[in-house]
Write a structure and sequence with these properties.
It contains 3 helices and 9 strands; from the N terminus they run βαβαβββαββββ. It has helices at residues 10-27, 43-50, 102-112, and strands at residues 2-8, 33-39, 57-68, 71-80, 90-98, 118-126, 139-143, 149-150, 166-170. Bound molecules: inosinic acid (IMP) and magnesium ion. Magnesium ion binds at residues 38, 41, 95-96.
Length: 173
């Protein structure tokens, strides 16, 4: 297994997170923001971005998984669901990467059934080419090509999440 040089450096990441946080801060002025981190992958991005958002917010998490190693299983499981009341909240889902869109689409529909005041999605990475289900994305950090990436919260087989930058993952025999 090889984890190479940065595909996105710490500097590029920090700059982008700040830009997204500024846009979110402007858009959510006077609203009742509930930021929901989708775990595990979004844990690093989530903790970076919420600390840069300049409006009051609630936080909660949702633990979901649809992935077996680097291949999607297409099956979404929820291991922990939002506990906060959402009827009076402007919910912002915070995700690490959107790939086929299956996970986020499932989560989005599930939350919409509970009738939030509003629902928007922020993803750090968007692998658009791989999309199988359309999901409306409101805030996107970087659009990336169809490569498997690790670091900044993203894993291969639950490893490499602690890498401070994003790297393309190449599997060797
Ligand atoms: P989707 O349902 O296919 O959109 O898958 C989304 C989830 O798959 C993400 O939240 C990640 O956990 C995982 N995933 C997709 N692409 C990658 C990648 O390149 N590296 C690491 N995880 C990925
Ligand atoms: Mg994820």
């Amino acid at each position: 297994m090889v984890v190479g040089k940065p595909f996105l450096t710490v500097e590029q990441i920090n700059k982008k997170v700040k830009e997204l946080a500024d846009r979110i801060s402007d858009d959510y002025e006077g609203k009742n923001l509930l930021a929901v981190g989708i775990l595990k992958g979004a844990f690093v991005f989530f903790s970076d971005i919420v600390r840069l958002i300049r409006v009051p917010l609630y936080i909660d998490f949702l633990v979901a998984s649809s992935y077996i190693k680097s291949d999607t299983s297409g099956q979404v499981r929820i291991y922990y669901d939002i506990r906060e009341e959402i009827a009076d909240k402007d919910v912002l889902l915070i995700e690490d990467i959107v790939d086929t869109g299956i996970t986020l689409n499932y989560i989005r529909e599930r939350i919409l059934m509970k009738g939030p005041k509003s629902l928007k999605i922020c993803t750090f990475l968007d692998k658009k080419e791989r999309r199988q289900t359309d999901v409306p994305l409101d805030y996107v950090g970087f659009e990336i090509p169809n490569e498997f990436v690790v670091g900044y919260g993203l894993d291969y087989d639950n490893k490499f999440r602690n890498l401070p930058y994003i790297s393309v993952f190449k599997k060797t025999a």
